[in-house]
Write a structure and sequence with these properties.
The radius of gyration is 18 Å and the shape is globular. It contains five helices and two strands. It has a two-stranded antiparallel ribbon with strand order 1-2. It is mainly α.
Length: about 110
């Protein structure tokens, strides 16, 4: 009986770990905020209010829970697309200045967690 209890407990623990999706993985908020500030993202974005661009909360609301949400956030941060600003004008979005894919994914996850 004790052996089956431990087997059940072990199986439950493994199942719980496997069911954690990458989106639920721990976000290094400090690293994300450092990269965000280093790239002057704060010039156009804030966590909870719109500036020249949308707030991070507005971005998160648009993409959170969508299968391609993280991919779209990363694309906007890395490919310098034309973006429409809150005032109706358009400009080229500044690309994140790093080749570190883990840091980019962490920043996207942090944005989506807002």
């Amino acid at each position: 009986m004790i052996k089956s209890f431990f087997s059940l407990a072990t199986a439950s623990a493994v199942l719980a770990l496997v069911s954690i999706s990458p989106a639920q993985a721990a976000v290094d908020a400090d690293a994300a905020q450092t990269l965000f500030k280093k790239n002057d993202c704060t010039k156009c974005h804030a966590v909870d209010k719109s500036k020249k661009g949308p707030s991070l909360q507005k971005i998160a609301a648009k993409y959170k829970g969508k299968a391609d949400g993280e991919e779209k956030v990363i694309k906007n941060m890395t490919t310098s697309p034309k973006v429409k600003l809150d005032d109706g004008t358009e400009e080229e979005h500044k690309a994140i200045n790093t080749k570190d894919q883990a840091a980019i994914k962490n920043l996207a996850a942090w944005i989506l967690s807002q």
